[in-house]
Amino acid sequence: MSSLLKIEWTILSHETPLTNRPCSRCRAIRPFASTGKFRLNANGSRLDAWLVFSCLACGKRWNKTLFERRPVKSISREQLEALQANDPQFAERLALEGSNSTTEQPGYLALGVRITAQAERTRGEILLTVRNPSGSRVRLDRVLARGPMLTRKEVHRLAQNGVLEVQDASPKAIRRHVSGTATLAIFPDREKGISDLITQMLSACGSGRA
């Protein structure tokens, strides 16, 4: 067992509709978002079409069936061109029609959590990776506040005290939007009474407001 605890958070909020379904990799119900890509399979004069979705927690792909064995002649020219060109507006409309997620008010933020390496103790250094696969415009301090249910003021205090350090970035990165992936080092030994924070980070999976 490693002495370094590694945790991965995935931002699950998304600007486009989500489809909640079982993920075989996560082994749980996860939100899937459209990739905006279509998969086509021609069989003679008939066509199969799928809209490709991706699990926001792990990236597992799922092909949602649009139609099977449909005669090409029955498909309009505009629709066929949209499928072949991966037209983003057409893909978004189809994703909206098939969405089964609950509409949330502005300010909604959900996180998926995964422990990638378990540690022998919770007082050692923690490596936290924050993934933003959907490209949602959300600040890092908001994500860090959401996980253990802190205020942003508390997050900034932990950063100023050296408990939280954004790796390969300036200290100002904590106030900026998460672009792709952000990695932080967390040092519980630098502040007393922080064990509860670690417990909250391990159970941060879920949804809420920050």
Question: What key attributes describe this structure?
Answer:
210 residues; alpha+beta; 2 domains; 5 helices; 20% helix; elongated; disordered C terminus; DUF1062 domain-containing protein
Commentary on this structure:
With 210 residues, this protein is an alpha+beta fold. The chain has two domains: 5-14 and 106-209, no CATH class; 18-97, no CATH class. It is built from five helices and ten strands, in the order E-E-E-E-E-H-H-E-E-H-H-E-E-H-E. This is DUF1062 domain-containing protein.
- Average pLDDT score: 80
Overall strand count: 10
Q: Give, in order, the helices and strands.
A: EEEEEHHEEHHEEHE
Annotation field: number of helices: 5
Question: What's the arrangement of secondary structure elements?
Answer:
Layout: E1 5-11, E2 18-23, E3 28-43, E4 46-55, E5 61-71, H1 77-84, H2 88-97, E6 108-117, E7 126-131, H3 140-146, H4 152-160, E8 164-166, E9 181-186, H5 195-202, E10 206-209
Protein name: DUF1062 domain-containing protein
InterPro entries: DUF1062
Short description, anyone?
With 210 residues, this protein is α+β, with helices and mostly antiparallel strands.
